[in-house]
Amino acid sequence: ADPWGIYAGLAGxxxxxxxxxxxxxIRLGKVPASSILASAPSDKNLDAWRESGCxxxxxxxxxxxxSTLVFLATKPHILPGVLQEIRPAVGxxxxxxxxxxxxxxxTLQRLLxxxxxxxxxxxxxxxxxxxxxMVFARGSGAGDEEAALLKSLLSSCGLxxxxxxxxxxxxxxxxxxxxxxxxxxxxxLAEGAVKMGMPGSLASRIAAQTLLGAAKMxxxxxxxxxxxxxxxxxxxxxxxxxLHQLEKGALRATVMNAVEAATNRARDMAKD
Length: 272
Hints:
The chain is an alpha/beta fold and about 270 residues long. It folds into 2 domains: about 1-165, 3-Layer(aba) Sandwich (Rossmann fold), CATH 3.40.50.720; about 180-270, ProC C-terminal domain-like (ProC C-terminal domain-like fold), CATH 1.10.3730.10. The protein has 12 helices and 8 strands. The strands form 2 sheets. It has a 6-stranded mixed β-sheet, with helices on both faces. It is elongated and about 70 Å long. Homodecamer; composed of 5 homodimers.
């Protein structure tokens, strides 16, 4: 059996972050395209895999028969049926990685054979450009070897960290949904510049580069964002006047509330 197999159950949806990661893994030589077998109910959801040179099928059990590393990427309400289907084929040699929102490791382990090596992974949209933020947690059957394998495989797609499972919903509120918060802020930055007379296309490019540069400085310097923010401010200068307006608009509290709301929604989905 090929060591790498991907089951991408994407009924009624687009290819998603799992499919967006595969071209990068292939280009880096981490996974040969011929060793990836993707399954989905419709041909539409398999087009992107085929364009990357991967093999495809409509038979989920075929993935289990030919592969040892299996990714599950279904809608939450579809997953129980998929697990029921593949359960008889799951063996001790399989590593099962779930990307399904709201489905806990406890549920996955209950619906799969006892002792199955299960991990839960949560990526975000920038995996498409190899700048993703991913976290994963391991079930009781998965050990250091499985965790190291997953981290090594996905680190080419961005930051990949192992965390306690309780952090996964927080990651959804911080990073999964957080990408949208950043887009909203970028839009507001650019519109402010347009208001002051700059062309929109130029303002959008500069706003994007500003966010990119600020993020890179945070990562490379290791400094707390408050320290970097202070470095930009000069007494009586433009930045401190602008920050005063942001504080009056309660930007910090509003963003914190957004992370809290998204995290709580992710927790509610898990309960459902």
